[in-house]
Design brief:
InterPro entries: Ig-like_fold (IPR013783), Ig_E-set (IPR014756), IPT_dom (IPR002909)
Keywords: Signal
Strand order of the largest sheet: 2-9-8-4-5
CATH topology of the largest domain: Jelly Rolls
Structural class: mainly beta
Pfam family, one: TIG
Largest sheet: 5 strands, mixed
CATH class of the largest domain: Mainly Beta
Number of helices: 3
Number of strands: 28
Protein name: IPT/TIG domain-containing protein
Distance between the termini: 135 Å
């Protein structure tokens, strides 16, 4: 009897302990849930529902800036946490983001509609629609190719809305590629479908961009410059002396060696020849000349004014750029270009990596072959 009594008591303790353990586990779960809410694993507390009080302007072009004001935007934007949509099209560029104000650029393919703001899993939208004004498009350039200093016409569409907003030609800036960065020119004339502008003298070929005041910036087609010629080394006419010609490189050159190329002038005007060459020998230089008679050019005495030093940069790969000219050329006329390798010390001269012909920026110079 006593043993049975002790066994019953022991079993009751086990049941009691099991009950207490279950209660403890349940309490832990509830506490964990409460803590989870406090720590905001879902992000709903960390990112409370945003509200929009106003936005401006209420219409705009692609790439224009829209300001949105309100609350609970978040101190800063995190990728995929803060997102804005214009008529269902997500914006790609944000210029400013704070808890109460956002500045966002209208995406290129935006559509008229409410602006929707998402902050994590919460979202809201503007009470009224944002009207997307069809942006300007640059369709073509005439003439193309062209030259520095000439006037070109950019043809496109949707220019009239800028005129309606009061923009004048002076408000429109065209950006051209340059050797470093860009150069700009102010629009001369503006119509519903065209704008004219002068090409800066230091512009180079590449895509042009047009800034319509602060309303829109649009990229247009590529502008090419007539007259630019880049020589393929393997198309040489003849060589003389110690020289080795390969695709993209001329090396193993010694004093007095030369290479001659043949080309046709694309237009009438003044042209400069440029070279990119490297050496690790002091006293190295290149002489460049152009003529329309191969026999005369081959035997002609070198003009010292057309000899340029190639700087010793300690290796055979770091180039020095040389400019020779200007040479007066006539359109559709065949010419020969001769590059002579010279040195005042040692035997090896330089490696030539690039050779080209460019339309001179200043067409008023006196040509060297006049």
């Amino acid at each position: 009897m006593v043993i049975n009594l002790f066994n019953k008591i022991a079993n009751m303790k086990k049941v009691y302990n099991s009950i207490m353990l279950s209660v403890l586990l349940l309490s832990t779960v509830f506490m964990g849930t409460a803590c989870s809410d406090d720590n905001d694993e879902t992000g709903l507390n960390k990112y409370p529902a945003p509200t929009i009080t106003e936005f401006y302007p209420n219409d705009g072009y692609p790439s224009s800036i829209v300001t949105i004001k309100g609350a609970n935007f978040g101190k800063e934007r995190a990728e995929r946490i803060g997102r804005i949509y214009f008529g269902g099209i997500e914006a790609k560029e944000y210029t400013d983001w704070s808890d109460t104000e956002i500045k966002v650029r209208v995406p290129d393919n935006a559509m008229t509609g409410n602006i929707t703001l998402w902050v994590w899993k919460n979202h809201t939208e503007t009470a009224s629609e944002f009207t997307c004004i069809p942006g300007a498009e640059i369709i073509s350039i005439t003439p193309n190719p062209t030259f520095p200093g000439t006037t070109i016409t950019l043809m496109g569409k949707n220019f009239q809305s800028f005129i309606d907003k009061g923009l004048t030609p002076a408000d429109i800036i065209v950006e051209f590629k340059a050797d470093e960065g860009v150069v700009t020119s102010v629009c001369k004339e503006l119509t519903e479908t065209t704008l004219t502008v002068d090409v800066p003298s230091n512009a180079v070929g590449g895509n042009i961009s047009v800034k319509f005041g602060e309303l829109q910036k649009v990229t247009g087609p590529e502008l090419a410059f007539a007259g630019d010629v880049k020589f393929s080394f393997m198309d040489y006419v003849e060589t003389n002396g110690s020289i080795k010609v390969a695709d993209g490189n001329i090396d193993s050159t010694k004093d007095g060696a030369y290479v001659i190329f043949k080309f046709t002038a694309p237009v009438t005007g003044l042209f400069d020849v440029y070279t990119l060459a490297a050496t690790m020998k002091d006293g190295s230089s290149l002489n460049v000349n152009i003529g329309d008679n191969l026999n005369v050019l081959r035997s002609q005495e070198l003009n010292a004014a057309l000899t340029k030093e190639v700087m010793n940069r300690g290796n055979w790969t770091t180039d020095t750029k040389g400019i020779y000219g200007p040479f007066s050329l006539k359109a559709a006329t065949e010419y020969y270009l001769k590059v002579t390798f010279l040195t005042t010390s040692g035997s090896w001269v330089a490696n030539l990596h690039e050779l080209g012909l460019v339309f001179s920026a200043d067409q008023t110079q006196t040509p060297v072959n006049d």
